[in-house]
Amino acid sequence: MKTIIKLFLLVLVVTTACTYNPRAGLEEETSTRGKIRIGVDESYTLLADAELAVFQSMYENAHITPLYKPEIDVINDFLNDSVRLIILSRKLTDEENAYFESRKIFPKTVTIAYDAVAFILNKNNKDSLLRYTDIKGIFEGTVSNWRQINPARNAPIKVVFDNNKSSTVRYIVEKFKLNNKLPSYCYAVEKNEEVINYVEKHTNAIGVIGVTWISDRDDSVAKGFLKRIRVAAISSQDNPDGNDFYRPYQGFIADKSYPFIREVYIINRESFTGLGTGFTQWVASDQGQRIVLKMGLVPATMPIRLIKTKKSF
Predict the structure, then answer these.
(1) How far apart are CA 187 and CA 286, in angstroms?
(2) Is 116-261 in the same CATH topology as 34-114+262-299?
(3) Can you spell out the DSSP letters for 52-97?
(4) Distance between CA 269 and CA 9 in Å, rounded?
(5) What angle do CA 179, 183, 185 make, to 5 degrees?
(6) N or C: which end of the chain has fewer CB within 10 A?
(7) What dotted CATH number matches 34-114+262-299?
(8) Cβ distance 193 to 278 under 8 Å?
(9) pLDDT at position 27
(10) Sign of the Cα pseudo-torsion (240, 245, 249, 251, in order)
(11) Helix, strand, or coil here: 243?
(12) CA angle at 226 for the pair 165 and 44, rounded to the nearest 5°
């Protein structure tokens, strides 16, 4: 009997030793499980919130904390290893790619959507149809008074951006090749909400914001903003003096009639199939792209159907 008991204990010890896992109790990160932080350009706060809400409701062990910041700060966090995934409206520069390559890191870039830069006006501003040449002149410094757009109106133009480190500032500077210098009547606040507050209170103001803040007409935040301001319609860049004007609506972004369109990217530096990779794949999948479509943006990885309707302004 004692021999049998000793043999049983020996088998138990051997079995336990063979199945011992030093990582027992620790949760291994996968494409749908883990805990990470990501950097998000503030322009895409509503889009990221919507994508994350659905993704994390489907995968209850996925915990993603978004850090919403101006574009420059998002890039700095990415370079400083504070985040391993970012959402923004530009690709990495050659210098930034070289920095990562020197560290044997090779970030992957996926286009997830097409959005636009919107120009918003005070509710009492009747000059809501602006020619592309007017917008160009405003940022080049040759159009500084509303009378240059409408001779019956004499008032200085004031332009307000969301932040001096934002993607909208960079986009306008690059679009019109301004050598990093904006006219003196251009100002910056801190956030997109503050741009809308400023435009609501100043009749002569033009606000420059990412269209996601006003594109989802079912979203309570976007609906609230649209009640307080007007969205300018701009003539085509190819026919700047024509009589066709386009607001940053989904169809006009898709067919490129609206002249201020951007691409939205996810850039992921993971070297393994982690949670960041899983989230990227999900956003680029049919489910994630349907959220992009619902937000009033144009999906990048799924076909869309355009229905031609009569434009009315």
Answers:
(1) 40
(2) yes
(3) HHHHHHH-TTEEEEEEEE-HHHHHHHHHTTS-SEEEESSPPPHHHH
(4) 49
(5) 155
(6) N
(7) 3.40.190.10
(8) no
(9) 66
(10) negative
(11) coil
(12) 35
End-to-end CA distance of the chain: 96
pLDDT (tens digit, 9 = 90+) per residue, 140-175? 999 999 999 999 999 999 999 999 999 999 999 999
Burial of 166: CB neighbours in 10 Å, binned 0-12, 13-18, 19+: buried
Q: Which two tokens stand for residue 55?
A: 């993704």
Domain 116-261 has CATH 3.40.30.120: no
183 token code pair: 């006219």
For 7, phi and psi rounded to 5 degrees? -65, -40
Distances, alpha carbon 133 to alpha carbons 103, 120, 150, 226, 262, in Å: 45, 17, 14, 25, 19
pLDDT, residue 16, reads 38
Tokens 């120009």, residue?
119
